[in-house]
Amino acid sequence: MFDIDRWNEIWNALAKNKVRSLLTAFGVFWGIFMLIVMAGAGNGLENGITEGIAKFAANSAFFWSEQTSEPYKGFKRGRYWHMDSEDLQYLKDNVPEIEYITPKNFTGRFGNSSNVIRDKKNGSFNVKGDYPDYVKIDPVTVLKGRWINDMDIRDKRKVCVIGEKVFESLFDPKEDPLGKYLKISGVYYQVVGLIRAETRININGRTEESISLPFTTMLQTYNMGNQVHFLAITAQKGIPVSVVEDKVKEFIKKRHSIAPTDLQALNSVNIEKEFKQMSGLFLGIQILTWIVGIGTLLAGVIGVSNIMLVIIKERTKEIGVQRAIGATPRTIIGQIMMESVVLTTIAGYVGLSMGVGLLELVNKIIESTAGQGGDRAFFAHPEVSLTVAVSALVVLIIAGLFAGMIPASRAIQIKPIDALREE
Amino acid sequence: MIQISNLHKSYVMGSNSLHVLKGLDLDIQEGEFVSIMGSSGSGKSTLLNILGILDDYDQGTYHLGGKLIQGLNETKAAMTRNEMIGFIFQSFNLISFKNAAENVALPLYYQKVSRKKRNLIALEYLDRLGLKEWAHHLPSELSGGQKQRVAIARALISQPQIILADEPTGALDSTTSFEVMDILKEINEQGKTVIIVTHEHDIAAMTKKIIRLKDGVIEEVIKNGDLQLFKDRVRTE
């Protein structure tokens, strides 16, 4: 098998028609290259997205009120309503499956930002009223100072926690924002914390460009009474979020005299469901990658098989001579299979290396340009696992064997006498 | 060495069946130098192919070295060819990308002799045929006579008992033809059975026994003693 004469023969068969061998090899090269690049890109997308949301509590659901769509208990349809602070305790009492429940309010309503002034600088940012527990659902990194605490809530302190972008536009880069005051819609608040978002999930504006006030402070300062704009809930471990989601909806509708059949009045997002959909999407991408990759590879392998057939045809006489002087069918088959495997493996290996090289390059570029936190691209670490690479190589070698099989069986079907007669 | 009795062979071509060998009997002793002659269509190539185990036969028996050759599978046939028969072809049939020594060594490669050893033996055989300094030349760099001598060396290297030559001089000029025949004669004198197929009378006349085929049977066998007669007859023809 490792006789130099055999390699000599393989080399000669391939080198005899360099362009043809090269083009044939290119088919296989391209197949494996595509497979690797696509698998890598799929992984990159998956990594990018999952990294962006990985730290977000997957067992959470969010609720907000809309106009009612059905008349109920004497109320007409199209009624504006709000959840209120009492709902929190009511839900805690009635839905034991709830782990955390935190309200969140916004100045103005969704999408409206508030004017924020500091000395001569000003900007327009989203202002949110938050509870200390909210960071257990959507984690943040505290860069300086602290997050909102229970005392802030109890005493309705006029303090605020700012995002990175807010800091950048209102402060000098080397300035310490802690203890400084910001004027938000006419009221002064002391900055007690600077945060960076850990996830890329944005609720009413990016966390970077947001200012968080204690929830109770916001209610009082902006005359919100006991309104709750937005409710974030996580389910206890082991309980499907959809169970909690349904129960919360049921109780809130009951408490606010909304028709149980009204689908519009209380809107919600179930993150667990979204996650599941997302992983389904990734699975789909992976399957597609393999189908297309294997298809391309197959085309390449068929090309190899085809060219091997031509080579056999050209070498009919040579094979005849070899058989006349004692080459057994096994020797001939082995020879042709080896040629095929060598061709596919070399071409495939080059494709594999170049594919991995390209992914590596893209990864370098992404890493050097991407920002931090919520600023990261939706694409990270495009790479293929060792398993994928190894299985691709195994597929290649097997493919090479298959590619050689038809030509080899054709070669031994040629009777030595017929081969010799061919002039 | 070779015993053939009542050998039949036909080729089926579509709906036609061509009966080429029609009950041929042949006996060749060890150490004979035989030529098989006959016009085209007489079945001489078919006979040679059967002798060389390149082709199977339909009826009769063929014993080679006391062993019945019948219905061998390809692997066995290849091994028997490798061990017992040395082939020499009209068009030399050297492998174009192998140099002279590698070509000669090829039968030993199939016997799985190590590269070093088989190349050494190949050099020895090339030396015997006066081609030592051409050992590392490719066939394309050799003359016709040199190529045929390389082919002869290749036929000899596995030390077969029989050398089968199919028109060994067919592609050579007369001077070279005689040189090649001299070599074959020498090989025969060393004790090997040599069988050549030819249509050239003067080449056949250099062998010790001539078998003339006609229409699938042996028309006449001219033995050593009568050879002079044959030669005279050829001259007058």
Task: Quote the average pLDDT of chain A.
Answer: 84
Gap from first CA to last CA of chain B = 33 Å
- Strand content of chain A is 15-25%
Q: Which structural class best describes the helix and strand composition of chain B?
A: alpha/beta
Broad shape of chain A: elongated
Quaternary structure state of the chains depicted: heterodimer
What's the main sheet of chain B like? Answer: 6 strands, mixed
SSE sequence of chain A, one letter per element: HHEEHEEEHEHEHEEEHEEHEHHHHH
Protein described:
The complex is a heterodimer of chains A (about 425) and B (about 240). With about 425 residues, chain A is of the alpha+beta class. Chain A is about 55% helix and about 20% strand. Chain A has helices at about 5-15, 20-55, 85-95, 135, 150-155, 165-170, 215-220, 240-255, 270-315, 315-325, 330-370, 385-415, 415-420, and strands spanning about 60-65, 85, 100-105, 115-120, 120-130, 140-145, 160-165, 180-185, 185-195, 210-215, 225-230, 230-235, 265-270. A 6-stranded mixed β-barrel of chain A has the order 4-5-10-7-9-8. Chain A has a two-stranded antiparallel sheet with strand order 2-11. In chain A, helix 2 (about 20-55) packs across helix 11 and helix 3 (about 85-95) crosses helix 8. Chain A is elongated and about 105 Å long. Chain A starts with a helix and ends with a helix. The relative contact order of chain A is 0.19. Chain B is α/β, with parallel strands linked by helices. Chain B is built from 8 helices and 10 strands. In chain B, about 35% of the residues lie in helices and about 25% in strands. Chain B has a 6-stranded mixed beta sheet with strand order 6-7-8-3-9-10, sandwiched between helices. Chain B has a 4-stranded antiparallel beta sheet with strand order 2-1-4-5, covered by helices on one side. The interface between A and B is medium-sized, with 27 and 29 residues.
